[in-house]
């Protein structure tokens, strides 16, 4: 991806052109990255669903618990794979306009600042609040959205994935600020998402503090630009 496998040894995609093979590699890269970043924070929900599904099977209330668990996880992952398609298209557009460097981070302090401000403002929206509430309450989610069977599990996974994308998609766009292949930046975003969803402290205060920091950092970059 723009020479990431051997820095300096390959031609950037913006110069060589996005071939079908490059599109496929980019898609798999984004898909693997999204799954790796989001599964840690989703694991409590998946583990709780697995426990409930196995108990229901032991009581004779459902069948094929293993298939249902796989369907639930698959539905969740499917939403982030769909998001990966959008991210690849956005990467293509940014590289085509020369907005990304070879290391796939923003060349423009104005664009970086705008993305940080947008992420900060989104932290304060009702949509973010509603989605995060669902993500932080696995027991309530399962009680409200429970559907029997493998197809029902798939639909539950899709629903949880939709809330998760609604909660974190804007934050994932910050990968274009720090660099899509910047492992430190990726680890930082992964930790931030996990803390936001799993930490026992008050989510509202933490979200507002994070929003203030993101907006301040973005405003500083815009001023520098």
Features:
225 residues, 10 helices, 77% helix
Task: Give a structural overview.
The chain is mainly α and 225 residues long. It has one domain. 77% of the residues lie in helices and 0% in strands. The chain has ten helices and no strands. The protein is globular, with a radius of gyration of 19 Å. 29% of the residues are buried. Residues 1-12 have low confidence and may be disordered.
- The whole-angstrom Rg is 19 Å
**What general outline do the C-alpha atoms trace?**
globular
Span from first to last CA? 27 Å
- Low-confidence regions: 1-12
Q: Specify the biggest β-sheet.
A: none
Chain-averaged pLDDT: 87
Structural class from helices and strands? mainly alpha
What is the domain total for the residues?
1
The helix/strand order is HHHHHHHHHH
The helix content, as a percent range, equals over 70%
How do you describe this structure in short?
77% of the residues lie in helices and 0% in strands. By secondary structure, the protein is mostly helical.
């Amino acid at each position: 991806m723009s020479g990431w496998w051997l820095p300096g040894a390959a031609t950037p995609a913006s110069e060589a052109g996005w071939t079908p093979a490059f599109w496929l590699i980019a898609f798999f890269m984004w898909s693997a990255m999204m799954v790796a970043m989001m599964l840690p924070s989703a694991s409590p929900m998946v583990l709780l669903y697995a426990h409930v599904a196995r108990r229901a099977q032991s009581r004779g209330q459902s069948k094929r618990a293993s298939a249902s668990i796989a369907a639930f996880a698959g539905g969740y992952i499917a939403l982030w794979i769909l998001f990966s398609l959008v991210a690849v298209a956005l990467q293509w557009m940014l590289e085509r306009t020369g907005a990304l460097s070879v290391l796939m981070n923003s060349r423009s302090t104005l664009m970086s600042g705008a993305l940080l401000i947008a992420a900060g403002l989104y932290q304060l929206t009702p949509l973010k609040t509603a989605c995060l509430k669902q993500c932080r309450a696995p027991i309530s989610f399962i009680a409200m959205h429970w559907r029997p069977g493998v197809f029902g599990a798939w639909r539950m996974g899709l629903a949880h994935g939709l809330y998760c994308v609604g909660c974190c998609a804007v934050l994932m766009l910050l990968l274009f600020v720090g660099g899509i292949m910047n492992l430190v930046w990726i680890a930082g975003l992964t930790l931030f998402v996990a803390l936001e969803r799993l930490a026992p402290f008050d989510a509202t205060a933490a979200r507002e503090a994070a929003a203030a920091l993101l907006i301040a950092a973005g405003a500083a970059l815009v001023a520098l630009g």
